[in-house]
Each structure stands twice: as structure tokens, then as C-alpha cells.
Design brief:
Tetramer of two alpha and two beta chains. Pathway: Amino-acid biosynthesis; L-tryptophan biosynthesis; L-tryptophan from chorismate: step 5/5. It catalyses: (1S,2R)-1-C-(indol-3-yl)glycerol 3-phosphate + L-serine = D-glyceraldehyde 3-phosphate + L-tryptophan + H2O. By secondary structure, this protein is an alpha/beta fold. It has a domain of about 260 residues: Rossmann fold. Helix content is about 40%, strand content about 15%. It has 19 helices and 15 strands. β10, α13 and β11 form a beta-alpha-beta unit. α3 packs antiparallel against α5, α4 crosses α16 and α9 packs antiparallel against α10. The protein is globular, with a radius of gyration of 20 Å. It starts with 7 loop residues before the first strand and ends in a 9-residue tail after the last helix. The mean pLDDT is about 95. Bound molecules: pyridoxal-5'-phosphate. Pyridoxal-5'-phosphate binds next to α6, α13 and α17. Pyridoxal-5'-phosphate (PLP) binds next to α6, α13 and α17.
């Protein structure tokens, strides 16, 4: 007999995972290695050393160890905000009058307001171990910059955050939070770097993009002694750190004998989605389940649904190695009317490969539909969701409504990657009826595909 499922399933502190889960160890075909843009040969650790921390490079290149130990110093940080709850959305189910059973893994219960702290803690810990004294990074919506500032304060490192200019303007309080934790915020593109000056010259008045901010942060890291650059998404090691989410979710579901039919996550650079699905995906790849995985992205930045699977740079300034990923082209400039994150031109090479091989479905949604779902969720479940996470909510609701029509009692799990307290300008514009949708035309996308090193690649 199935036990009664509580509203929230909590794990105990002792049940916190002691390892991260490396899904690449279960993949029959691996994502292509990073390519050095000059030699066009796969990057080794030496190529990555000037930019990234040593231990993170080892994790980045590790395709064989399925379980990677979480050092005690990181476990101790995790204890401040983990385990996070797996919530049964009873109230939402009732409102939708659906036979579907909806669960969400809630990552917003920390001051950064999102899952980003899972990787920030790990990355700053390793930087400290290596004896570095400062870090640089980019931030879009601001959650990553906040998470990193929290981790830098905890482990004692200096931090410069290049924040996408439109976000910095839309969310002045983000800057205050980051500064409270000791980080320095620079709206990007800025005049403080060569990359920033060049981007400003070519696109005066641009609101910036994650790609620009990455170029500026990397340049500063390379030019500053004892400093490295850290990235909040896309890379293999970031996705690896986020697997704490999926492992906790799996353990919580198993406690009650619950088997998900589908798992849904929003996808910007792919880290929360990848972290949520990794342990379930390994099982799927090993023939142990048949879960339907869905990645949800904005219609205004349709990387998976309309992008090309091609070798591309991770940043606008073309400083990163080349990665084979779904991409809109590193020259893609997201529409300024798009609220929140999920506006990165590329996608995690791991998620890209799994999607390319047919293990993940991708859907894109327009932002007014996303905010409609966010408000329904807030009014029924109580939590104010981040716009990014609300992409997953939208599809979870759509799927639950399909169940209502078919009478199927599917088990739907989605990632609630964060809260939306800093996104009230966007909420207000939805409520005022002034929010609009933007879907790039094929011609516009063609223009940004022209920034690919091989524009004909498919
Ligand atoms: C709350 C939240 N969810 C999701 C994302 C998207 O990033 P990723 O796809 O790496 O999880 C972001 C990024 O800014 C975020 O802040």
C-alpha cells in the first residue's frame, strides 16, 4: 500500500548526497570535447588552466567516474540551505482539477533565491583550496552573481560581477544584495575591458547579453594576478554540481515509492535541468526507466528548438574554447523585452547531446504564457516563482491539463529553480497588460547563425 504523501518530502541532513552524479559515465556517446579555436584540436587541461581552477578542470574533463565525492568543506556549506524540499503541489492539482500528481523540487530557499548556490559553493571552495584570491563572473538575472557573492563571503575571496546591463537597470536591488556580500557589480558591456569597449562600439545602446558579460569577466580574470573566471551554467562541472538536486529528488521519491512519468525543467544554459535529470537519465540510459524529459526555453531565445547543433564559442568576444552545442550563434543578441534569464545563445554540451540523441524533448513558450502560469502558481502554491522556473511551471500545467482531458494520473516532476522577488517589474508589466511577446523571425536567426565558425553547420 502506498504511504500517504506529505505536502513536503524532506530528507534528513544525514541523507544529503555525499557525491555528485556524472551522467557522462552512463552516456554511450559522449559530447564532443572542447576544441581549441587556434589549433582546432581538443582542449587539454593545460589549455584551460589560465582561465579555470584546476579541480574544476579535472571535473570538466572527467567522463568516466559516475560518482564524484563532495568534499566535507562543501557539504558543510550545503547544510546551511540543503536538503531542499520536494513538494507535492496538492493545491495546484486541486485548482487544475487534474488527476495528475504534480511534484516540484524547490531550490529557492536561500538568499540567492535559486539553485545557483549549489555550484557557487563548490567553485569558490576549490578556488580557495588552490590559493586564489579573487574571482570574476558574469550574471544575467542576478541569481548567479548573488550566489557567488555569498560563497565568496563564506570562503573569503574577492569578487567582480559583470552584470548584463538591462538586468542591472531592471533590478537595482540585486546590486545591493551582491554588494552586501562583498561583491563588486559592473554593468556589462562596460568601458572597463577591451571586449566591452569593442561591443559598445559595434552595438551602441545595447542592453548587453550573457555572452558579452562572459567576455568581460574572462578578460579581467586573465589580466588579474591570482584570479580565475567562474561560470554559473553551461559547463560540465557546473551541471555536475547541480546533480545534488536530482539526487535529492530521487531519494525523496524513492522514500515513498513514487516513479515519475515526466520530468520538466527550464533551460537557460542547462544546469538546473541537467542537475535535476542526471541520475534519472543515467537510469534511462541503462534501460531502467522510460521517463519523458522536457526542456523548456523562451520563444524569444529558442536555442534548442530553433538553434543549430554546431561548434561555437561560449561568449560574444570569442575567448572561450569551441563547444559543440545547440546555439543561436555567439553573436545572438536577445530581445530587450524578454524578462529574466534564459537568454543565453548556447546550451550545455551534455544537454545538447542528449537532446540531439533524442533523450530529451524541447519546447519553447512565450513569456505572457509563462507569467500567466507563474501567477496561477503563486496564487495556489503560495511561492512567488522566478520567471525562469515559470517556464517549467507552464509546461507542467499544460501536461496536467492534458491529463484532465485523458483521465491519466501521470506523475509530473518539475524543477522550481528559484523565486522571483527581484522580478517584480516584469510581474507588474504582465499585470498591467503591457508585457509583449517576441519571437525572432527566421531572417533574424539567420543573421546570428552567421556568427558561427561554420555558418552552414546543422
Ligand atoms: C532561477 C533560475 N532558473 C534557471 C536559470 C537558468 O540557468 P540554467 O539553465 O543553467 O539552470 C537561471 C539563470 O539565471 C535562474 O536564475
Amino acid at each position: 500500500m502506498q504511504k500517504e504523501i506529505p505536502y513536503k518530502i524532506f530528507l534528513t541532513e544525514e541523507e544529503l548526497p555525499k557525491t555528485w552524479h556524472n551522467v557522462r559515465a552512463s552516456m554511450k556517446e559522449l559530447p564532443e570535447p572542447f576544441i581549441n579555436p587556434v589549433t582546432r584540436k581538443p582542449c587539454g587541461a593545460e589549455d584551460l588552466k589560465p582561465v579555470f581552477c584546476d579541480e574544476l578542470i579535472a571535473q570538466e574533463l572527467n567522463t568516466t567516474d559516475k560518482y564524484i565525492p563532495i568534499p566535507q568543506g562543501i557539504q558543510d556549506f550545503y547544510k546551511m540551505f540543503r536538503p531542499s524540499p520536494l513538494v507535492r503541489a496538492y493545491n495546484l492539482e486541486k485548482k487544475l482539477d487534474t488527476p495528475a500528481k504534480i511534484y516540484y523540487k524547490f531550490e529557492g530557499q536561500n538568499t540567492s533565491g535559486s539553485h545557483k548556490l549549489n555550484s557557487a559553493a563548490a567553485q569558490v571552495y576549490y578556488a580557495k583550496q588552490q590559493g586564489l584570491t579573487s574571482l570574476t563572473t558574469e550574471t544575467g538575472a542576478g541569481q548567479w552573481g548573488t550566489a557567488l557573492a555569498m560563497a565568496c563571503a563564506f570562503y573569503g575571496l574577492d569578487l567582480k560581477v559583470y552584470m548584463v546591463k538591462v538586468s542591472a537597470e531592471q533590478k537595482p536591488h540585486r546590486k545591493a544584495v551582491i554588494e552586501t556580500y562583498g561583491g563588486k557589480v559592473i554593468p556589462s558591456p562596460s568601458n572597463t575591458t577591451e571586449a566591452g569597449r569593442k561591443i559598445l562600439e559595434e552595438n551602441p545602446g545595447t542592453g548587453g547579453s550573457l555572452g558579452c558579460a562572459i567576455s568581460e569577466a574572462m578578460e579581467t580574470a586573465v589580466k588579474t594576478p591570482n584570479c580565475r573566471y567562474v561560470l554559473g551554467s553551461v559547463l560540465n562541472h557546473v551541471l555536475l554540481h547541480q546533480t545534488i538536486i536530482g539526487q535529492e529528488t530521487k531519494a525523496a521519491l524513492e522514500k515513498y515509492g513514487i516513479e515519475p512519468d515526466m520530468i520538466i525543467g527550464c533551460a537557460g544554459g542547462g544546469s538546473n535541468l541537467g542537475g535535476l535529470i542526471s541520475p534519472f537519465m543515467s537510469d534511462r540510459l541503462e534501460g531502467k526507466n522510460n521517463i519523458h524529459f522536457i526542456a523548456v526555453e523562451p520563444a524569444s531565445c529558442p536555442t534548442l528548438t530553433r538553434g543549430r547543433y554546431a561548434l561555437d564559442y561560449g561568449d560574444t568576444g570569442r575567448m572561450t574554447p569551441l563547444m559543440r552545442m545547440y546555439t543561436l550563434g555567439c553573436g545572438f543578441m536577445p530581445s530587450a523585452n524578454h524578462a529574466g534569464g534564459l537568454r543565453y545563445h548556447g546550451m550545455s554540451p551534455i544537454i545538447s547531446k542528449l537532446y540531439h540523441d533524442g533523450y530529451i524533448e524541447a519546447r519553447s513558450v512565450e513569456q505572457t504564457k509563462v507569467f500567466e502560469a507563474a501567477i496561477l502558481f503563486a496564487r495556489t502554491e503560495g511561492t512567488l516563482p522566478a520567471p525562469e522556473s515559470s517556464h517549467a511551471i507552464r509546461i507542467a500545467i499544460d501536461e496536467a491539463l492534458k491529463c484532465k482531458e485523458t483521465g491519466e494520473a501521470k506523475t509530473i516532476v518539475f524543477g522550481l529553480s528559484g523565486t522571483g522577488y527581484f522580478d517584480m517589474t516584469a510581474y507588474q508589466s504582465y499585470l498591467d497588460g503591457t508585457m509583449t511577446d517576441y519571437i525572432p523571425t527566421d531572417e533574424e536567426l539567420e543573421k546570428s547563425f552567421a556568427s558561427l565558425i561554420d555558418p552552414e553547420a546543422r
